[in-house]
Amino acid sequence: MSEDLTAQDLTKPKSARDSAGQLWVDLGPILVFVVTYNVLFRIEATKDEAIYIATGVFIAAVLAAIAWCKLQRGKIPPILIVTGVLVTAFGGLTIIFHDPAIIQIKFTFTFLFYAAAILISLAIKQNVWKLFFRHLFNLPDRIWNVLALRWAAFYVVVAILNEVLRYNFNEANGNFDVWLNLRTVLTYPAFIAFAALNTPIVLKHHREEDDAQASASPTA
Fold this sequence. Notes:
220 residues, mainly alpha, 9 helices, 0% strand, globular
């Protein structure tokens, strides 16, 4: 699942129930993937097929998260739709071709896809970051651009990190489990930390709708 879903709503006020539900939507599928693989890999009868079974479970978990959003909230976040397409496509190819490298590449492709989408949107004056999150925050365009550029750069960094891990830890050298666990341990804290670093600028420039309208209205 895409880690940005976890990190990007940290400054939005939510009830404990809403936060818990969003956490499971964001983290649930990848955690299911990690746990399933680690359990099956340690059972002799399923060791050789652990990657492919876990990948199938990963796809099912992502689709279940999408269905949950539709049933419980009446709509599916656009980023979750993109995640579902990528996980299903790359996961399906992993199973069909019996090549674990495909699911590893999926994470690199996803991060670079998000970075490219952000940069292209800025180039055509349609900040996708603002389009996705303006319902949460009321920020000046300059701040939206700063945030978009920061996250684009961050996505490139985590894509490079994933490639470094994939090169050193893969099924060919018998270390796929090392890649999977390291990627999870390193990536999620990195996303949360980066979101936290960007929280001050969001809170500093966020204005309530009433305040924004009042400042725009002519004084008597």
